[in-house]
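Human: Here is a favour to ask of a fellow structure person. Comparing notes only helps if you start from a blank page. I am asking you to supply a protein in sequence and C-alpha cell form. Write it directly below this note and I will take it from there.

Assistant:
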Amino acid sequence: MMRLLLAEDDPLIARDVTAQLTKAGFNVVHESDGEATLFAGEHDDFAAVVLDLGLPKIDGLTILKKWRSNGRDMPVIILTARGNWEERVEGINAGADDYLGKPFRMAELLARLHAVLRRYSGHASAVLSSGPVSIDPRRRAVMVDGMPVDVTPMEYKCLSVLMQNRGRAISQLELTEQLYTQDFERESNSVEVLIGRLRKKLGRDAIITRRGFGYQIASGEET
C-alpha cells in the first residue's frame, strides 16, 4: 500500500479526501499545519504528497522549496484557489509536479495522482548521463564531470526532458508543452531563456541547437 502525505488544514476537506484516498488503496498520513508537514516530508518517505499552499505556520510554497532544495524528490500535487493562476505558476516553478484548483472532484485528484506516480516510476531510479553531464532523478541532482551544479526547479525539469530524450533533438514547441501545462505560463522566449541559463551552468556546448529540429543534449562525441 502506497503511503501518501496529505497536507490540508480544512478538517472537512481533509476528512473526505482521506476517506476517498484510503478507499482507493492509499495509506494516508494527514498533517494540518506547515511545521508538521515540513517535518514529515523531510524525515519520512512517501510515494506522493498532496499539498495545500495555504497552510498555517509555514505556507505550502515555502515547504515545497525547502523539500526540493534538500533533495526531497517525491511527486507533489499542489492545491490552489481555483482562480489563482499566480500560485500555480509559483508552485510549478518551485518544483511541483501538478496542481489542482479548489473545489475539485476526487476523480480528478486520483487521476492526477496516478499520472504523476506513473511518470515518477518510469524515470526515478537510474542516473542519466550524456557526455560530461549527468542527473540523478532520485536526488534531483545535476553534475558536470562529477561535480554538483546548482539549478532551479525549472532548469532541472528542462534538462531532465533533454536527458530522457538524449540522442534526438526536441523542438521548442515540444519542450514548451512538456514544461508548461497552461497557456498563461508560456512566454514566447521562455524555453530559450532556460536553455541559455543551462548553457551558462553546464558549459556552452552541453546543449546543441539543431537548426530546424530543436535542442539536443550533447553526447560528447560531436565533431
Notes: The chain is about 40% helix and 20% strand.
